[in-house]
Design goal:
alpha+beta; OB fold (Dihydrolipoamide Acetyltransferase, E2P); 3-stranded antiparallel beta sheet; 3 helices
Length: about 130
Amino acid sequence: MNSVRRLLAASVITIQNSCFIYPACQKCFSRLILDSRRFNCLKCGCTGEAKDASYRYRLSLKIADTNDLFDITVFGSCLDPFFGITAENLQRCIQDFNHLSGEMNTDASPGLLVQAVEMCFIGKRFIFEV
């Protein structure tokens, strides 16, 4: 893998999916497998109680500079200022909202949240480190 990083000024064309957070292993940041009681990390073997799972931001974007299109994913707390809340607290808000609204998919992001994220990012220009 090439370890040379560069800065890329590009505009966001679209948000690739509406799932902005994921349960993340505290050791290796991989996606956790959750069931109703436990979590398990397939990468490093970390396990624990589902209620203790940590959450992390994952924003998949299609971006364009003056010449090319790119698919990128932005991870972690660098997104806290855009959302105004940590990923763990946003997950609690989504769960509470879904519970109150009767949504069966506990990981589903409310439509208004998806629209707000689209308004915040689509058409805006950012500097990405790639």
